[in-house]
Amino acid sequence: MHLGIAFHEKYGLYDFGPGHPFRGKRFEDAMRFFEEQGLLKSSNVSILKPKPAEVEDLMRVHSRSYIDLIFEFAEKNRAYDLDTPVSPSILEGSLHIMGGALRMGEALFSKEVDRGVCLGGGLHHAGADFGGGFCLFNDVAILVRFLQEKKGIKRVLILDYDVHAGNGTSDIFYSDPSVLFISVHQDPKTLFPGTGFIEQIGRGEGRGFNVNLPLPPGTGSTTYFHALREVFVPLASEFKADVILANGGSDPHFADILGGLGLTVHSFFDLSRLIAEVAQRESQGRVVLLVGSGYNPQVLPACWFALTAGFAGWTHIDVADPSEPLIEPPWCQKRVDATVNELKRILSDYWECLR
Ligand SMILES: [Zn+2]
User: Fold this and answer.
1) Of 49, 90, 304, 352, which sees the most CB atoms within 10 A?
2) CATH code at 263?
3) Alpha carbons 8 and 346: distance in angstroms, whole number
4) Number of structural domains the chain divides into
5) Rounded to an integer, what distance in angstroms lies between the CA atom of residue 288 and that of residue 104?
6) Domain span at residue 219?
7) Cβ neighbours, 10 Å, residue 87
8) Is the peptide bond before 193 cis (omega within 30 degrees of 0)?
9) How far is the CA of 139 from the centre of ligand 1 (A)?
């Protein structure tokens, strides 16, 4: 089993500046941590260095007018919104991150690698003609359309485990039954982007193929994994995707500055091992993680490492949390069970496994 890690030094240009929670230094911090842990020395791990994506790659997902707008904002050093500045170097970093997803798509289908981790990826708040939430272009969707148009892939399952709901990705595939989008996130009543509720199940042909699993702030590992096993695992088994993509960085960690979920470093290891195991069983082992988020630099490298080591087939990691995890509120598991049951009821017309 060979793991590819898509990475380029220029990812560091995707840096929103002092005082902003998304800094470009995260990439070198993570790579140094990988190195220290011996991950990059593993004989089954190699680095894939991407070229920047071209406008035609972006156009498989984004409208021409939106792409032109972002290029124009870059030239003028103008922010897209309050949280999302744009400059020539941010654009250059972004295009390299998009290129990483494409490089991984090629590598997976030429059998250069069996599984992939795209650092910097998972920019899931960008839609076809909008950006925001630190995202300009959506690498997850760009990879889906690349695989469908260039590699003959039909069905894709996306598991979005970022602490924030994947509103951009959801919007892009909302009417599309070829993509099963499952987003597990902190209750959007308590966090950006404010959408991602269980009733949002898709439109037209795509009804039933957009699945939101919102979790209350404070949800810990045991409850989190129980919910995943009730929803993601059976759906992956019934849908039988040709490839599984999963996105999210360290922002569901309990020490994250923006998020309020309660995962530990070890949860990320368990999570990537679970995703790999499901892909092995249901999707011919084809699976890519896109890992970019995280707003506590103290835990980001360890969480990204845990995700990547799990994908590399490690059976043990020796990395600790900075402090004891928070204790899950006593009502939490009951509320999550109720959400899961309600979600199953809403989706039961579309999925036998949820009846
Ligand atoms: Zn996030």
Assistant:
1) 304
2) 3.40.800.20
3) 43
4) 1
5) 8
6) 3-354
7) 19
8) yes
9) 14
Longest CA span, the chain? 53
The pLDDT tens digits of the residues spanning 63-122 come to 999 999 999 999 999 999 999 999 999 999 999 999 999 999 999 999 999 999 999 999
Number of H helices, E strands in the chain: 10, 8
Query: What is the CA(355)–ligand 1 centre distance, in A?
Result: 31
Structure tokens at 114: 């069996």
d(CA 346, CA 283): 26
Question: Is 246:159 a contact under the CB 8 Å cutoff?
Answer: yes
In sequence order, the β-bridge partners of residue 243 are 156
How many angstroms is it from 44 CA to the middle of ligand 1?
Answer: 29
Cα 156 to chain centroid, rounded: 14
pLDDT in tens, 42-64: 999 999 999 999 999 999 999 99
Q: Which residues of 27-65 are buried (b: 16+ CB within 10 A; e: fewer)?
A: bebbbebbeebebbebeebeebebebbeeebbebbbeee
Helix (H, G, I), strand (E, B) or coil at 243: strand
User: Ligand 1: distance of its center to the CA of 136 in Å?
Assistant: 14
Which listed residue (125, 185, 253, 266) is catalytic?
125
Question: Is position 125 annotated as part of the catalytic site?
Answer: yes
Alpha-carbon span 252 to 246, nearest angstrom: 14
Q: What does residue 36 show for φ and ψ, rounded to 5 degrees?
A: -60, -35
Structural tokens at position 233: 């695992």
Residue pair 96/15 in contact by the 8 Å Cβ criterion: no
Collapsing DSSP to helix, strand or coil, 115 comes out as strand
